[in-house]
Each structure stands twice: as structure tokens, then as C-alpha cells.
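Bug #77: duplicate submission created two jobs. Keeping one. Sequence:
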Amino acid sequence: MSIRVDAEELRGFLDTAVALAKEVGPAFKDGFWRKGQFASATDFAAEGKLGNAADCVTAVDCHIEKVLFSRLRSIYPHHKFVGEETTAEAGEAPITNDPTWIVDPVDGTNNFVHHHHFSGISIGLAINKEPVVGVIYLPILDELYTGVRGQGSFLNGQRLPLFSPPVLTSPTSLSQCMMFSEHGSNRDETVGSRMRSLTRLLLDKAHGGAGLESLRFSGAATSDMSMVAKGVAEIQWEIGMHAWDIAAASLIVTESGGAVFDGAGWWGSDVAERELKPLDIWNRKIVSVRYIPDLPDQPGSGRELQRQLARELLSLVEDISCTPDGLH
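Kept job's structure:
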């Protein structure tokens, strides 16, 4: 059964998420700078997750997730909870229409371990399996992104996007775009697939590519997508991330006027109908596109340009099989 919530309830959920993100911010900073309760190597305790040295977890991740879920359970005892560290330990969680808090306590953990400032806390709330509230807090940069379904998204209280292209210079192809992506933590044969996809995007059109203007990797999905929401980057693509990486960020992008789609690539596919599919945050594949204003006297043209860019990207990238998050 679908669950209905009103705007006032959503604002209450947002206020809770913001307060909790700020509450754990000092612990995040202590871990980043290796001081306070995380001053020693033993206290910090970085290690490979489930045997993968490229996908690490620290004592800070576990501490922040424990605090957040403890506070949330005390406030919302009937809600559900999905967190990166608890899910990694306990296995897949059932996914229902119930209000479900989806938390990444330290998104960009490798950045965090290496003192790279693009790492932060992501708190999303999904109802009916779709994000309705999102908070991303990047403590080292002092950036707080917030969003509520139907109420817009903001950076430190300023409405997003911060930067909007002039109507007549809106991008019409990837050759005019800055794109963010990630290579992921897998070190298996999928590395080759990712590299082939990125090569096609970068090659100029004379060589069968898109001639992508600029390709960037921040090291964290939340940071990549915040660039799209701000209007710094035109497009973002990733396969293999998890729901806790994008639950909050996807809501913040759409509330900034951006668009999000399923990120399964079409290159080499024998599927005749290559139509854009709506994003399912549990499916681990995403394309996000920044806000684009409508052309004069052409209502809806901005949305069509977003779709055009997403279609161009998906036509050049390969799909990678991923096990969806959660038990459906």
C-alpha cells in the first residue's frame, strides 16, 4: 500500500536529518584530521571491506552510522533503516514502501582516508521506495546540501542550481559538457568495460566518440552529483554504486531542476527500443543531468535537452551487471 505524507511532515524529516548530520560533523572532522577520539591508528582502524582493499571502511564510518541510526530509531521507531556498514555486515535488507532511512556515514571513504576533502555524510529518506528527503553534509568544505520532494534543494540555504547557463548557450551535445564519473572499487574484468566506455566518451566524433569536453572524478558519488545540482557539471554517470550513495543526492539533483535516469548502457546491446528509463535507486546505475532552461517560446525544451544528453551518453557506454540492493 502506498504511503501518503504531507509537506509539513517532510519538512520535519528534513529538520531531523540536518540536525543529525551536524551532530556527527565533529566526529567526522576528528576522523579526517586524526585527532580527538580518532587520534591513533588503532582508533581510526582503516581496513578493506569484505576482503576488498580498494573498498575500505574505518572506525569513523561505523561510529557515525551507529550514532545516526540510534538517534533515528529513538525518534522514528516504526521506520526502516538501510546503512552502508550495517548492510555490508548483515546482508541485504528487505525494501518496502515504509519510510526508510538510507545512510552513508562517510561517502568517499578512500578520499577520507587520504585527507581528500571530497567526502561527506549522506542521509536520505525514501517513502514508497523513492527518495523524498535528502541531506548531504561535506564537513571539511562546510557545504550542507538539502532537498525535499516538491520544495526545492539548497546549498547552505541558497537555492540550487547556483549556476544556470544562458538559454542560448545551453549544451546540446556531450562535446559541450563537463562530466563526473567514478571507476568504482571493483578490480576485476569490469575495469576494462568502464575504460572502453570512458574512451568512447572522450574520443572525438571523427573517431566514433562523443568528444566529451571534460571528464572529472571526485572520488564520491555524492560530490559528483552535488556538482550537477550546483550547475558546475552538466552530467554524471556511474554504475555499481549503491542506494546509500545516491538516495539523498538524486533527490537534491531533481529538486534543483535536474533530471535522473537509469544508467544502464546501450552500447553493444541488441535491445531494439533504446528508451530512457526512470531511476530506481536500488538498481545501482544512474545518469544525472543538470538543470537546463527552456528555449524562448519552447516550453519543455530544457527537459528534452536533458534527455538528449542522457541518450547520447547511454548510446556510448556498456552496461555492467550489478546485483540490485535490497530484497524486493
